[in-house]
Design brief:
31% of the residues lie in helices and 24% in strands. It is α+β, with helices and mostly antiparallel strands. A hairpin with a 2-residue loop joins strand 25 (586-594) and strand 26 (597-608). It is globular and about 85 Å long.
Length: 725
């Protein structure tokens, strides 16, 4: 089902700690490295244990029958607050109405089961925890059953459980009544037996989100909501050009602003610290800084694109190859050729970046919405000269992440720590959206060029594909693992491993990864976000060149790829492909696999006042088991909305080293009025589980572009999509 270790390899630990009379259950994953992490967790647990809480725990049962699930991952809208709780509740036979959820503290016990660090990303949260969270629930149930058997004077086999109650014959006891006794029992030996899928009551059933009431009422706490007595607010003046540094600054005018308490220099710039945000912002406006703009002052995206184009004319590092693509293309006469382009993109989350830091004699407390607790903890510890366990990360709800809150440098967290350290007081450092759009990390710009020769039936016989764009991995701690022979795996995903290319007898994929001075980062669906646009655009072009229906053409090419085919067929059926679209509308299709899930999307578009209008998107997904089908549908809807904004509007450009956009008015995302009707259909599947958070984003741009071609005859090979006059 997943890449997580098998249950037999796990060593369960019964924490045995009682919080308010409750039972705490946790476990660690064995192995040399994880044993070291377990030792760190024990050390981290020590101060917390004195406060009657053990951090390496996954659920807590209170005497009031509440079951509190501790979430190892961050809830940033993707639904794990509910989905992971379902896994524990299922095996625990819990009363769902008694389930509560908390973000877990930062500790090695909560390290990702596949990646070894506490983090949220890669559409991995559900499949990576599928075994671990069920095991935690099953272990708790095993102890509660044993406690009930003692209480009832019967054998454990005679005790049954349902809805948070253990019973035998006419005797019954609520979980809350059994928690204290269960906490005194010895830890079970070996892994507990998990339920058979046919016995699941929660898993696979549409389930309402547990975090919705909190967010609808405003009770949910995001990082920006953190406030306490003595907390100051800072904004930082950063170089307008990446790589620039402070030559000198004059803080007199800034300090004259009412409410400004201090102005300090930090490695990223100059921080203005004030009683509240507005004073800090006005202080920064008044601040005078003389910048050394450094080597990137001449950055210009138009010039960069020309440099990329020249690179695309030269051989690059080989990412995939079979046969003799160059030879086959030379014999083909005049092959089909096309160039595709995508721009730099910002993440632009709704909640601007923020991080609150309080440094005291015991260590450091950090409150923030983060996807990267382990890295944040280690970076902060390095700045302050502390041990990682002395840095206490309090994960808040994230008002959107999309990868931005998981930078290998922990940029916004490390900066906030530097500010608080320099100020000597608790400080919340806030980035305005303009700060982030102009000074953050971006999805890289790419230029791709393909040459394809078709066989007598109109199908690809030779394919040469060159890609030019920055690596998001080179220069990070992940380079050794993810960059091989000059190939960043994230740059070529969806192309080098495309199912279309696998069956082309002569193919070659090459990559250039130029360095530009522009900081780049993963962006929702990573390389798939642009490679799906290129590949599905090309396939549509080839279908047209072959004179074949786009869906039938794909069916022929994907005949050896049943999961792709199943998604395509379901989407085509639900969209009534083959019947005429409404007058004035066109349909386009795209199929793409990413993060272990297989999607097909069919978009229906029209042109209104010279602009593309998307009316409807039919999406079919095979993600293996859908733990919460409602959650999968919501992720498809949000992924389509996110990707559609980039397809129709979003782009960043540089001139004289400066980002030319700043906020939603000139870096537009999808407007509410533009949201199309979306239908999501889940392919019934018992296959290996994939992700849902990111795959919905990748196919929407090509589906829309292909629909535009069907309607207008215009082939749009650049994002955002712009109709020719």
């Amino acid at each position: 089902m997943s890449a997580v270790p098998q249950p037999s390899r796990r060593r369960f630990l019964k924490a045995g700690a009682v919080l308010g009379g409750g039972l705490v259950i946790g476990f660690m994953v064995p192995g040399a490295r994880r044993q070291a992490l377990a030792a760190q967790a024990a050390a981290a647990a020590a101060p917390a244990a004195a406060a009657s809480f053990v951090p390496n725990a996954f659920l807590r049962i209170g005497e009031d029958d509440s079951v509190t699930v501790l979430l190892a991952h961050s809830e940033m809208g993707q639904g794990v607050w509910t989905g992971l709780a379902m896994l524990i509740a299922e095996e625990l036979d819990a009363d769902w109405s008694k389930i509560k959820v908390e973000h877990a503290p930062a500790a090695p016990a909560y390290a990702h089961t596949a990646f070894g660090a506490q983090m949220t990303g890669g559409s991995t949260s559900t499949w990576s925890e599928f075994d671990r969270y069920r095991q935690a629930g099953a272990t708790a149930r095993q102890l509660l059953v044993a406690a009930a058997a003692q209480r009832f004077g019967v054998a454990a086999a005679d005790v049954s459980t349902a809805n948070g109650v253990a019973s035998a014959g006419g005797q019954r006891a609520r979980y809350g009544e059994l928690a204290a006794a269960a906490a005194e029992l010895p830890a079970p030996k070996g892994a507990p037996t998990l339920k058979d899928a046919k016995d699941w009551k929660l898993i696979g059933k549409p389930t309402k989100r547990l975090d919705s009431p909190e967010k609808i009422t405003g009770r949910a706490k995001f990082g920006m909501d953190v406030q306490f007595d003595g907390l100051l607010t800072a904004v930082v003046a950063r170089s307008p050009v990446f790589g620039g540094t402070v030559k000198s600054f004059d803080a007199a005018a800034a300090k004259a602003v009412a409410g400004v308490r201090d102005v300090v220099q930090v490695p990223s710039g100059v921080a203005v610290i004030a009683d509240h945000y507005w004073a800090a912002k006005l202080g920064r406006d008044a601040l005078k800084v003389d910048w050394d703009l450094g080597p990137n002052a001449g950055l210009d995206t138009a010039k960069l694109r020309e440099e990329f184009r020249k690179l695309a004319a030269t051989p690059g590092a080989v990412a995939a190859q079979a046969g003799d693509a160059a030879g086959a293309l030379a014999k083909a006469g005049k092959p089909f050729e096309a160039e595709y382009n995508v721009p730099y993109l910002a993440h632009a989350p709704m909640e601007p970046l923020n991080c609150t830091v309080k440094i005291d004699g015991d260590g450091c407390d950090i409150w923030t919405g983060t996807q990267f607790q382990t890295v944040d903890q280690q970076v902060a510890a390095g700045i302050l000269g502390l041990k990682p366990e002395q840095v206490r990360i309090h994960t808040m709800f994230l008002g959107g992440g999309f990868g931005r809150r998981a930078t290998p440098t922990s940029d916004f967290v490390s900066e906030a720590v530097q500010v608080a350290k320099a100020a000597g007081k608790p400080v919340k450092t806030v980035w305005s959206r303009e700060d982030d759009v102009r000074g953050g990390y971006y999805r890289p710009m790419y230029l791709q060029r393909a040459r394809v020769a078709l066989d007598a039936q109109g199908y690809p016989a030779a394919w040469e594909h060159r890609m030019v764009g920055q690596s998001i991995i080179t220069g990070t701690p992940f380079e050794a693992a993810m960059v091989k022979n000059g190939i960043d795996a994230t740059s070529v995903e969806g192309v080098a491993d495309s199912p279309y290319l696998k069956d082309v007898p002569h193919h070659r994929v090459e990559l250039h990864s130029p360095k530009t001075g522009i900081p780049v980062l993963w962006w929702r669906s990573v390389g798939h976000s642009y490679n799906a646009f290129v590949m599905e655009g090309l396939i549509d072009e080839l279908a047209h060149a072959a004179g074949k229906d786009p869906v039938e053409y794909r069916r022929a090419l994907l005949k050896a790829h049943p999961r792709h085919l199943a998604a395509l067929n379901l989407a085509a059926e639900k969209a009534a492909w083959g019947t005429p679209a409404e007058k004035g509308r066109g349909r386009g299709v795209a199929v793409h696999e990413s993060f272990g899930s297989y999607l097909a999307q069919i978009a229906e578009v029209s042109v209104e006042n010279g602009a593309i209008r998307v009316h409807k998107v039919v999406c079919a997904i095979d993600c293996g088991l859908a733990v919460n089908p409602d959650g999968v549908r919501a992720q498809m809807e949000s992924g389509i909305a996110f990707g559609l904004g980039a397809a129709l509007h979003s782009a960043l450009s540089f001139q004289d080293g400066r980002v030319q956009q700043s906020n939603y008015h000139d870096y537009q995302v999808l407007r509410l009025s533009e949201m199309p009707q979306v239908e999501v259909h889940i392919v019934p599947s018992t296959e290996r589980m994939g992700g849902a958070g990111e795959p919905g984003t990748a196919p929407i741009a090509p589906a829309v572009a292909n629909a535009v071609f069907a309607l207008t005859g215009q082939r749009l090979r650049e994002l955002p999509l712009r109709l020719k006059a």
